[in-house]
Amino acid sequence: MIFTAKKENGELKINNLKSYQSIIDSLKDNEIIELEIKKESSNRTNKQNGAVHLYCSQLSQALNSEGLDVRMVVSPGVDMMWTPYLVKELLWKATQKTMFGKESTTQLKKVGEINDIYTVINKIIGERTGIYVHFPSIEESY
Prior knowledge:
The chain is mostly helical. The chain has a domain at 46-129. The chain is 45% helix and 6% strand. The protein has five helices and two strands; from the N terminus they run E-E-H-H-H-H-H. It has a two-stranded antiparallel sheet with strand order 1-2. Strand 1 (5-8) and strand 2 (11-14) form a beta hairpin. The protein is elongated. The two termini are 33 Å apart. The mean pLDDT is 86.
């Protein structure tokens, strides 16, 4: 059996405890059970980070293959071809900071924020250039 729990107001609250009640009632006095405690992070996972990097690489390749340099997409006067690093810094992190005030991708929540950032970038780049790059799925290698 696996319990999930969270700390609220200094107390440990076990989720769905009633569904385990019959198992708990069947324990004999002094019977020992072992509970493993794992802390789950709410920040983005390593796989999500890999997907962000893969997306930045794929978007830079798509923009370059259409001959759209940095100057043509976001910043007049910067005549450079796209690299995954430039996509991450000029598009991803700029959007992330504007939307959530977060400097690093390590601060992003694993639910919602990455998708929200991607959606905004994909919409803006798509409208400006006609290029739409899907966000990598878990099936794709990072």
